[in-house]
């Protein structure tokens, strides 16, 4: 066991990318996977195959686990919890805040929860953003190795912060993705190919991205002055999306959901405010 040795448990698409980056960076890398054949290519590159989870865990002071989710993490690590001792456990499996807190409670003091905001090909490059939260001392101790996986950011002592940021980004991405798919369906109903919509879609996404700093400031300050368009003006535009969808025979459920939130905000007195005021509808689940 050397200072720069590291163990990777879980060699799916992401685990293989993580272990491969560590091998390339020159770390003594021990790997384990439930289906052992997935370690073959890594062993050919210089990784060491562990015959059991116990052997894998005891091989390194830093243990990284990246499997499907919290249930799999528990299944793998609960039987060897005693072997972890003061080793640092970094969990890069996706999950919720609650799962992160539960896993942290099983490994007190030496646990980092992480979230990978990148696809496997980016791992090992600065383009791979990976956030960590939990034991600050553990992050400091192994920061150099973690930086070999991508751009590492420590978010804070609460182990839930990484999962929370991951789900926040996912929520944003699915909002954009489904907005694009709905618009493509709308255009497709008129025979317009999705490909020709791309320049307009990109411009729309860029425009909204440009609004975000101002909206973020308003959200943090709790006041929503309408600097460009009022919520009332936005609501009229959303109505057009709903009606256009209905006329085209496209499911209007997605814009109707957006309209419902905007209507509630107007009813709550925000018609003359900026669109950012709709956040109060998302905060108050009782009003939905
Ligand atoms: N791929 C991405 O683009 C990406 C991006 C960001 C985050 N992530 C996260 O990274 C994690 C792994 O993703 P992936 O793409 O590597 O998934 P994957 O290719 O489907 O691999 C899943 C891994 O989990 C293991 N596993 C599942 N259940 C298990 C159990 N009960 N006991 C032991 N091992 C178990 C699998 O082992 P077997 O090989 O034996 O089945 C395999 O190693 C997920 O939480 C995912 O959300 C992935």
Report on this structure.
- This is NAD(P)-binding domain-containing protein.
- Keywords: Oxidoreductase, Signal.
- Belongs to the HIBADH-related family.
- It is a single chain.
- Helix content is 54%, strand content 14%.
- It has 288 residues and is an alpha/beta fold.
- It has twelve helices and eight strands.
- Helix 6 packs antiparallel against helix 8 and helix 8 packs across helix 9.
- The chain has two domains: 153 residues, Rossmann fold (3-Layer(aba) Sandwich), CATH 3.40.50; 99 residues, N-(1-d-carboxylethyl)-l-norvaline Dehydrogenase, domain 2, CATH 1.10.1040.
- It starts with a strand and ends in a 5-residue tail after the last helix.
- NADP nicotinamide-adenine-dinucleotide phosphate binds next to helix 1 and helix 4.
Instruction: Work out the radius of gyration.
Output: 23 Å
CATH topology name of the largest domain: Rossmann fold
Structural class designation? alpha/beta
Strand content: 5-15%
CATH class of the largest domain: Alpha Beta
Order of helices and strands: EHEHEHEHHEHEEHEHHHHH
Catalogue the ligands.
Answer: NADP nicotinamide-adenine-dinucleotide phosphate
Low-confidence stretches: none
CATH architecture descriptor of the largest domain: 3-Layer(aba) Sandwich
Q: Calculate the mean pLDDT score and round it.
A: 96
